[in-house]
Design a protein that fits this description.
Blueprint: E1 14-18, E2 23-25, E3 34-56, H1 64-68, E4 78-103, E5 112-114, E6 120-123, E7 130-134, H2 154-157, H3 162-185, H4 195-217, E8 219-231, E9 237-246, E10 250-252, E11 260-270, E12 290-304, E13 307-325, E14 337-341, E15 348-353
Antiparallel strand pairs: 1-7, 2-5, 3-4, 3-8, 5-6, 6-14, 9-10, 9-11, 11-12, 12-13, 14-15
Helix pairs in contact: 3-4
């Protein structure tokens, strides 16, 4: 009998809605009518999921074939680890080298939203609730610790030898099966009073049989573990060892040769470029511009034992360029411009005008 500890493990990456911790700033006399902000750079968090399988031999395993007619038994204790997979999630972090300032005149009333890292989220509009990457959910393990001693009768415990105890345990298993069949066929001397009573009795019989059978066949339990690392994409990278994994030890450090390497490859698929006008000429950045990122793209692949365990194409701020909007658009008297930025890349996701009443 193999008792498997089950975890609910969703291996695909999920999307969830999360509100930004936004701070509103307006130009005032005390700040000299200047608003400071940063642009973000894009980083990734990689979560690896591994399982540890623990197999324990039953104390009567050598008698399983004789008394239960099965050879599907665990004959020695063991622990093995398996790397189940990985997921890649993107995050925006402050780029301390990308600090900018918007300067206004007294009486002008634009406003901006920044996050806790002072990265810009929006101008003249509330930041939208953002859709961000989240990791798969690994539910708590269901630990089913069966105390086999509670299933052993006094007769078994007093049998004296291991062989005799195994024989008596097997007889008890067959008695349990016979009792279950008598109840199901209505031939039991003391039938359960109602359906709920029958359910409870059948459950108890099942648990007793499982515990006794485990003495012959052994038990198998599976537990899940996660490990996260951070990686910031830059240029093309080929086969960077980011972590190692051992079937005996699980996760080990990238420099620990006890484990096999997990390789990361970054391939730049698109670079952000300056916009061009209708004549094909690259546009110039306006004076005092509202800086924003035009991100590039990269594909990240993770491989273990020459097999891809995760792959994702993502927009990356640092693979692009910084451009800017004319600041006069923000203070237009009748139709001021509003802008909403992507908090992960610093790129524009929405831009428009708001007619003043």
């Amino acid at each position: 009998m193999k008792l498997r500890i089950i975890s609910t493990l969703v291996m695909g990456i999920a999307l969830t809605v999360a509100a930004q911790d936004a701070i509103q700033l307006q130009p005032e006399k005390f700040n000299d009518y200047a608003l400071n902000y940063y642009l973000p750079k894009t980083t990734t968090e990689i979560e690896f999921v591994a399982s540890k399988t623990t197999r324990k031999a039953g104390q009567y395993y050598q008698y399983a074939r004789k008394y239960l007619g099965t050879t599907d038994v665990i004959t020695e204790n063991s622990e093995t680890w398996t790397l189940e997979g990985a997921t890649i999630a993107t995050r925006g972090v402050v780029n301390t080298d990308a600090r900018y300032q918007l300067t206004f005149k007294a009486g002008q009333t634009p406003y901006i939203y920044i996050n806790e890292d002072q990265c810009i989220l929006s101008i003249n509009a509330a930041p939208e609730t953002a859709i961000i990457d989240t990791f798969p959910t690994v539910a708590p393990d269901i630990i089913n610790d069966i105390d086999v001693t509670k299933a052993l009768s006094e007769e078994i415990l007093m049998s004296g030898s291991l062989a005799k105890m195994a024989e008596m345990a097997a007889k008890q298993i067959y008695r349990i099966r016979e009792s279950r069949m008598d109840i199901l066929t209505g031939e039991a001397d003391n039938m359960p009073a109602d359906g709920e009573s029958m359910r409870i009795i059948m459950q108890q019989l099942d648990q007793q049989e499982q515990a006794l059978t485990a003495l012959f066949t052994g038990t198998t339990s599976v537990q899940y573990f996660t490990k996260r690392i951070q990686y910031t994409p830059q240029e093309d990278v080929n086969n960077l060892v980011v972590i190692r994994f051992s079937e005996h030890l699980g996760f080990v450090d990238a420099n620990d040769l006890c484990g096999a390497p997990v390789y990361l490859t970054t391939s730049v698929t698109e670079r952000g470029e300056y916009p061009i006008d209708n004549k094909g000429v690259v546009k110039k950045v306006p004076k005092g511009a509202v800086a924003y990122n035009i991100p590039g793209k990269a594909k990240i692949t993770l491989k273990f034992h020459n097999k891809a365990i995760a792959e994702k194409e993502l927009s990356v701020a640092q693979l692009g360029v910084v451009f800017g909007l004319d600041p006069a658009l923000l203070t237009h008297k009748k139709e001021p411009t509003y802008v909403v930025f992507n908090p992960t890349t610093g790129g524009i996701v929405q831009i428009g005008v708001t007619a003043k009443q």
